[in-house]
Design goal:
alpha+beta, Arc Repressor Mutant, subunit A, 5 helices, 13% strand
Length: 108
């Protein structure tokens, strides 16, 4: 099973809708089919991609497969996104410090 980048997996509107539905709690494939306007085989294909991106987990319960958000994969996605925020805050702090230094130099 090849890894798929989580942001790429969520780039598809149907996968994003399925993932958002799973935020509310675990669902069977049949429950997920009812929340989107695609066929059961298409939903299964989308879920496979979300699994490869480590955004969802599957558990077999008898004949049913129940999907849920994968907390570890979601934490990794959040850490990745937070790293951008850290860079933005760092750049903002550097710009603010530079501006303060320039202001101090003009006052002298």
């Amino acid at each position: 099973m090849t890894d798929i980048i989580p942001l790429e997996a969520l780039g598809d509107p149907t996968r994003r809708k399925l993932f958002e539905r799973l935020r509310d709690g675990p669902c069977s494939v049949n429950q997920l089919v009812q929340s989107v306007s695609v066929s059961q085989p298409a939903v299964s294909q989308h879920l496979r991609i979300l699994r490869q991106a480590r955004l969802v987990q599957v558990e077999k319960c008898g004949q049913r497969r129940v999907y849920r958000v994968d907390p570890q994969g979601l934490a990794e996605l959040r850490a990745y996104i937070d790293s951008f925020w850290d860079q933005v805050l760092g750049a903002f702090q550097r710009a603010a410090n530079q501006s303060a230094r320039e202001e101090t130099q003009h006052e002298e």
